[in-house]
Design brief:
single chain, 356 residues, alpha/beta, D-Maltodextrin-Binding Protein, domain 2, 2 domains, five-stranded mixed beta sheet, three-stranded antiparallel beta sheet, 16 helices
Length: 356
């Protein structure tokens, strides 16, 4: 009886030893293998809920899976300009789209670098239908509505006025700027005569124009001194650019896929934006015409070598320096705050449809 018990215990011991040995070997092998993940760069946040039509590449890159293809699990967030600046500074937000409103902030210490162009003009100055205000010279003594003092519509109106001999400096009293946090309230103030001009982001001004309620006196996608120039740029966190340049390069590839898609398929792009309720516009034909006016660059256009982001940065830096919104000379500003990122893209091949 004792022999049987001993034999049984020995058998159990041998079985347990085999199981443990086999399991241990299996665990060791498993731990030696890197864990596979769908997203190379993990989860990131990108501001993409401001309702602007011109943020189309963000919506398209998200909906078409271009961010995911490049290794990002993207969460689109709402973020005002201050939130964007803080995120860029600490690297929590690796990239944002923004206009030359960011330029003075960069001088003031916001750690960000211009790395590409997003699109051309998306701001209009509009007046009430039938207004006698037609040109920049007519702005003298007028009240101009803007989204914020120092914002891009404010700067656009200021540059246009200054280039035509009208001082935009508040202390000179030739123009009065009034801020409105809501574009619809700005339009209502225009209709009521509380302001004379509304400097606005698309699509509100364009919608009001199509409805016959306003006249456009400046369209920066068509009119000097802004035409054929970038309105909005892509800004990378300088921290992320220095520490993880491959991550910034991957993000740029995702944006460029979206830009090319929009350029080639404006109808489908707009439908995606409308279906996703990304922008406050339901007039598809108007949205398509606006999207096309922004000149999102295609791969074919990039392949020509004429796509010069650097020159647009310098141009607007000089304009802002001339009206004293920037302390730094345009060329020096560009040298300090612009960087060309190597994304390892062959635009010739991409233009021909070779995505490899």
């Amino acid at each position: 009886m004792k022999k049987k018990i001993v034999a049984g215990v020995l058998g159990v011991f041998l079985i347990l030893t085999t199981v443990v040995s086999t399991t241990g070997c299996s665990l060791a092998t498993s731990s030696d293998k890197p864990k596979e993940t769908k997203y190379k760069y993990g989860k990131i946040q990108i501001p993409g809920k401001d309702g602007s039509l011109c943020g189309a590449p963000i919506y398209i890159a998200y909906e078409k899976g271009y961010f995911a293809e490049e290794g990002f699990d993207v969460e689109l967030i709402s973020a005002d300009s201050e939130t964007r600046k803080v995120g860029l500074n600490n690297g929590n937000i690796p990239m944002v789209n923004g206009d030359f409103q960011f330029f003075p902030s960069m001088e003031e210490g916001v750690e960000t670098t211009v790395v590409d162009k997003l699109h051309n003009g998306c701001i209009k100055l509009v007046v009430k239908k039938g207004s006698k205000i037609k040109t920049a010279k007519d702005l003298k003594g007028k009240k101009i509505g803007v989204d914020e003092i120092g914002g891009t519509p404010y700067q656009v109106a200021s540059v246009w006025a200054e280039e035509n001999g009208i001082s935009a400096k508040q202390e000179d009293g030739q123009i009065t700027f009034l801020p409105f946090s809501d574009g619809n309230l700005e339009l209502q103030a225009l209709y009521k005569g509380e302001i004379d001009v509304a400097a606005m982001w698309d699509p509100l001004g364009s919608v009001a124009e199509k409805e016959g309620k306003v006249d456009t006196i400046l369209d920066i996608s068509k009119d000097a001194p802004f035409n054929n120039r970038a309105c909005c740029f892509l800004y990378a966190s300088t921290k992320v650019l220095k520490e993880k340049p491959d991550e910034i390069a991957a993000l740029l590839r995702a944006y460029r896929k979206a830009q090319d898609y929009i350029n080639q398929n404006p109808d489908e792009a707009v439908q995606t934006i409308i279906d996703g309720k990304y922008s406050q516009i339901s007039d598809k034909d108007l949205a398509i015409s606006l999207i096309q006016s922004y000149d999102y660059p295609s791969y074919a256009e990039r392949a020509t070598g004429k796509f010069d982001v650097k020159s647009d940065v310098t141009y607007f830096a000089k304009k802002l320096n001339e009206i004293k919104y920037l302390k730094t000379d345009g060329d020096k500003f560009t040298e300090q705050y612009y960087a060309q990122v190597d994304t390892k893209e062959d635009f010739d091949k991409l233009a021909k449809g070779d995505k490899k």
